[in-house]
């Protein structure tokens, strides 16, 4: 069984299904932690409808979809913020396929895509309850930094230089 990663339109059927799985998981995790409940289905639908993936379309962005044995398994997005800075967005691997190397593969592919677009630095934000994500970013060389945005759900901010310093 092998992984593949390729760019895909953010509104493709595979990307849409993965986005729904991503949002359901992170939303449920938040509400279970903070309110002891799962996301209300109507709220989930409103939030999904309100989200736009337009910033993950070329030329300023890119959505990568990972497949495991041909099955759509995960996503990572890259959004150019300026000439030298890219932001890593929506890193997600379906729960049933975690631990098989997909997340590091997606992040590295996103870094390569950012470099190819001229970025010298990747930034990202995440939440405290997404402990697996924070561990992944640290393992891949990301350093925790000061706040770089005003996302109300973000608790941790990371950066990584994408240029070879040697």
UniProtKB/TrEMBL annotation:
It holds the Pfam family Acetyltransf_1. Keywords: Acyltransferase, Transferase. Residues 16-163 form the N-acetyltransferase domain. SUPFAM superfamilies: Acyl-CoA N-acyltransferases (Nat). The keyword Acyltransferase applies. GO terms for molecular function: acyltransferase activity, transferring groups other than amino-acyl groups. The keyword Acyltransferase applies. PROSITE patterns: GNAT. InterPro entries: Acyl_CoA_acyltransferase, Bact_Acetyltransf, GNAT_dom. PANTHER family: AMINOALKYLPHOSPHONATE N-ACETYLTRANSFERASE-RELATED (PTHR43877:SF2), AMINOALKYLPHOSPHONATE N-ACETYLTRANSFERASE-RELATED-RELATED (PTHR43877). This is GNAT family N-acetyltransferase. It comes from Streptomyces cupreus.
